[in-house]
Design goal:
alpha+beta, 5-stranded antiparallel beta sheet, 4-stranded antiparallel beta sheet, globular
Length: 204
C-alpha cells in the first residue's frame, strides 16, 4: 500500500534565524546551500536554468534578502513582505516548485523565451518515466521578467516512481523548440525528499 502524503506544515517567519545573528553563521550556511543548490540546478537548453526549490532554499533566500537589503535589521512588515513575495514557491503535498532563469547572450532570443513563458507558447514539463507533467507558470507582475516561478503537480503514480528512482527529465517545449535534460541521480534524490515534506509559506 502506498505511503500517504503528509499534511503541509507552514513555513513561518518564526523559522528565520534572528537577523541580528545571521551574519555570524552566514559563511557556513552559504557554503552548505551552494552545494545543495548545485544538486537542484538543472540547465535546460542553452538559455534556461531551473532551480528546484524547497523550504530550505526559500528560507535561505529570504534570509539573504533581509541581511543584504536591511543590514540585518528588518521590520516585521518587511519580513512579512518577503514571505508573501516567495509564497508562490510554497509546495502543497504532491507538488514540486522551481525558479526558472532565462539567460541569453542574444537579447532577442531571451525576450522571445520570456514572452513565450508568459503567454503559454513555451512550456516546461517534468517527465517521470513516461509521464509528462506540465508546469504551471505563476502569473507575472512584470511579463518581461526573466525569472519565472514554476509549479509541477505530480499524480500519485509519478510520485511513487520518482521516489523509487525512476528516470526523470526536464523538457522545454515551444514552437520549433525542444530541449530535454535528464535529471542526475542527486537531483532526483533531492526531489524525492521534497515530496515527503511540502510546507506552505505564511507571512504572519
Amino acid at each position: 500500500m502506498g505511503r500517504s502524503l503528509p499534511s503541509p506544515r507552514p513555513l513561518h517567519p518564526s523559522l528565520l534565524v534572528d537577523p541580528s545573528l545571521y551574519g555570524a553563521i552566514r559563511p557556513t550556511w552559504t557554503a552548505a546551500m551552494a552545494a545543495r543548490k548545485q544538486r537542484r540546478r538543472v540547465p535546460v537548453g542553452p538559455h534556461c536554468t531551473v532551480l528546484f526549490e524547497n523550504a530550505q532554499t526559500v528560507l535561505f533566500q529570504i534570509q539573504e534578502v533581509l541581511h543584504i537589503e536591511t543590514g540585518g535589521r528588518p521590520t516585521a512588515a518587511r519580513i512579512a513582505h518577503e514571505f508573501a513575495a516567495y509564497a508562490p514557491l510554497s509546495a502543497n503535498p504532491g507538488e514540486l516548485t522551481a525558479t526558472l532563469f532565462v539567460q541569453s547572450d542574444c537579447r532577442a532570443t531571451g525576450d522571445r523565451l520570456v514572452a513565450g513563458l508568459h503567454d503559454g507558447r513555451v512550456g516546461v514539463a517534468l517527465r517521470v518515466g513516461r509521464r509528462h507533467h506540465l508546469a504551471h507558470v505563476h502569473p507575472d507582475v512584470d511579463p518581461a521578467d526573466p525569472v519565472k516561478y514554476l509549479r509541477f503537480s505530480l499524480d500519485p503514480a509519478a510520485r511513487r516512481a520518482l521516489c523509487a528512482g525512476a528516470p526523470a527529465a526536464l523538457l522545454l517545449l515551444g514552437p520549433r523548440l525542444t530541449a530535454v535534460q535528464p535529471l542526475r541521480r542527486a537531483t532526483r534524490l533531492e526531489l524525492a525528499a521534497d515530496l515527503l515534506e511540502s510546507p506552505t509559506i505564511q507571512s504572519t
